[in-house]
Amino acid sequence: MKVRSRLLGSIWCIALLCAALGSTSVSAQSRPPMPPGPSPDSQYRLSPDSYPQEGVPKGVIKGPYTIPSKAYPGTQHTYWVYVPAQYDPAVPASLMIFQDGQAFKDEHGDMRAHNIMDNLIYRREIPVMIGVFINPGRTPEQPEPSPKIGWGDGFTNRGVEYNSLDDKYARVITEELMPELYKEYNISKDPEQHGIGGSSSGAIAAFTVAWERPNHFRKVLSNVGSFTNIRGGHKYPDIILASKKKPIRIFLCDGRNDNRGWRNGAYDETWDWFYQNVRMQKALTKKGYDLNFTWSMNLHGQRFGGVAMPEMMRWLWRDASPVSTDPNDMVERSFRQPATPKQ
User: Fold this and answer.
1) Nearest residue to 172 (alpha-carbon basis) of 239, 78, 64, 250
2) Are 158 and 95 in contact (CB under 8 A)?
3) 23-49: per-residue pLDDT in tens?
4) 104, 295, 311, 324: most buried by Cβ count inside 10 Å?
């Protein structure tokens, strides 16, 4: 029985390791042995911030909607829009866009971004914001990425869009998606009020959008970012060091047991997710960027990212709303209530 238990444990560990979110995962055959002990993902539990809480007004998620893409002809992007209960069309709202939207809005997933926004908006820890969950581009014939069928690697345009170091995906967001959002919602035009985030390849895509369009996006949330040699993403630290500093605020999140660069039995640092995230942290720090980061023990995925996300959101948006210190200001000292419907 002990031998069988060890065998099942090894199989489980390999299965976890193979559950990579990036465009290219590392095969189990080429991995070095895992460190002794339980699965590196075994310690992570979501906090109350990630669950619906009694008395907290709930926003609504509208959609799905689709937009055809001129940047990637023949493809379309599906997206959903989170509208908080406190949204008032008369007041410009902030904006947060998540790549791989199906995963970030998954009610049973690791991120549950809509619950986090409900709770943090209610407690005035982030501003009132519109949230957008956008999936990678696909042709009309291709299935929509979902928690059941996968994130889109191998059957959508995800790998090309998210991992390429050019401005084509930035055009999808700023020239194709944003105009549609502005038609329907009163969203601030101030780039300081615009954030963008993602996991794995979706994280490097978010960084690229802000890097290419800092006059549109100034806040980046990156979980297990694929700053690796899928399509040259490992070059970003050198690009950052060689470029003029841009007005971007970044929060990086990764783990020591993310994909560690073993390919075909040999180590390649350009495919080491954790090492490349640390290189990003060092380059951004050296250039004086407004940067925060957290490293844990996690594998490639969203288990730790989901735990860290509430604090990532609080930190990124920490100064996005004016603060009243007047002790007689009962509005500031109260939880945010739903907007009053206009008659």
Assistant:
1) 78
2) no
3) 444 444 456 778 899 999 999 999 999
4) 104
